[in-house]
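Input sequence (366 aa), recorded before submission:
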Amino acid sequence: MKKGRAFFISSLFLPVRLSPLKMTTAMLENAHPLWEQFRQELQSVSSLGQWTQLRDRYLSRQRGLITLEVKKLGRLSAEERPSAGQRLNVLKVQVEKALENHYQLLKEQERFRQLQSERIDVTLPGYYPRRGRIHPLRRIQREMEEIFMRMGFQVALGPELEWDYYNFEALNMPPGHPARDTQDTLYITENLLLRTHTSPVQIRTMQQQPPPVRIVVPGKVFRRDAVDATHSPMFHQMEGLVVDAGITFADLKGTLEAFLKELFSPQTRVRFQPSYFPFVEPGAEVVISCIFCSGTGCRVCKQNGWIEVMGAGMVHPKVLQKVGYDPETYTGFAWGMGIDRIAMLKYQIDDLRIFFENDVRFLSQF
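Predicted structure, C-alpha cell format:
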C-alpha cells in the first residue's frame, strides 16, 4: 500500500479512511505555493460533487488557479521563466495525481455505501408469486374448440371492426330489415361498425374457398346493451358453419347433440324448437335439459326443466348465392352460441360481470 493514502477494506467492505497527503523532502523544497493550499482544500473533499468543484478550481482551462499562474509567466524575465515554468508543470502533475487518487477513494466509499443500502437479508423467507391461471372464459373456449376440432372442424378468425356488408347485408339482412334493430349496433361510420356477431367470418371464409367448408369462429362481439347480471356491451360468441353437397338438418342435429353431451355430460338431453333467424331457413333454438336440476325444474330454468343455449338452422339459399355457391348443389348448416353463457352454465355462475372484474379470489378457483 502506498504511503500517500492509508485505508483498509475488509471482506465486509469497511469504510475507507482518508489520511493527509505526504510529500518527500525534494517535493517540499521545490513545491509551488499553491500546492500547500491545494492539499488543505483536498482534505475537506468528501463527495464527488466537491471533488469536481476542486478540480475545476485548479485545472479549469479558463479560470483555473494553475492556468492563471501559467498566464503570468509572460511577465517574468527570460532567466526566471524556465524555472517558474518547470515548477508549474510539477505542480500540475502533482495536483492531477492527487485528484486521481482521491477520486478512487471516494468511488470506493460510494460503492461501500451502495452495498450497505442494498444489503439483502438472506435469512428472510422467500416470496412465492401467485401462479397464473387461464381465465375461465378462455378455458371454456379452448374446451369448445377442442371438441369441434376432434370432429374435423377448423378454427377461423376475423376482424372485430367490420363492414356493414359482411355483418348484415351478406347475411340476408339488407338495409331496413327489422332484424338490424334487434342487434343494437355500435356504428363507427355509416358503413363501418363493431361486429354484432361472429357470422361475418362465415361470409369471408366462403368467399375465399370453395366447398366443403367446416369451421368454428370464436371471438368478441359488441352490442349496445346495458351492463347487468346477464348482459354486457362486449361478450364472446362461437359460430359454426358446415357447407357441402348433401348436408341435411339431421347432420346439424347430430353434430350439436354430440357437442353438447361432450361439453356437459352424456345424460344431457337436447331439443330443437322452431325459431327465426334471417340467415338460416329453417331456424331453430337449441335447448338442453337443465344441468342444475336435471330437468325437474328450478329457479335457473324457470321451473320448466329446459335451458336455451344457442340458435341454429340450415344456411339460407340467399346467403349461399351471395358468396357464389350454387344452392342447388350445396347445402349447409350454421349455429351460434354465447361463450359467456356456456361458461355461466358450465361453472354455475349467476352473474356475467364477475368474469370481467379480475377478482383474484374468483379467478384462482379455475
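Checked by second reader. Strands lie at 154-155, 161-163, 186-187, 192-194, 213-222, 234-244, 270-275, 280-289, 306-315, 331-338.
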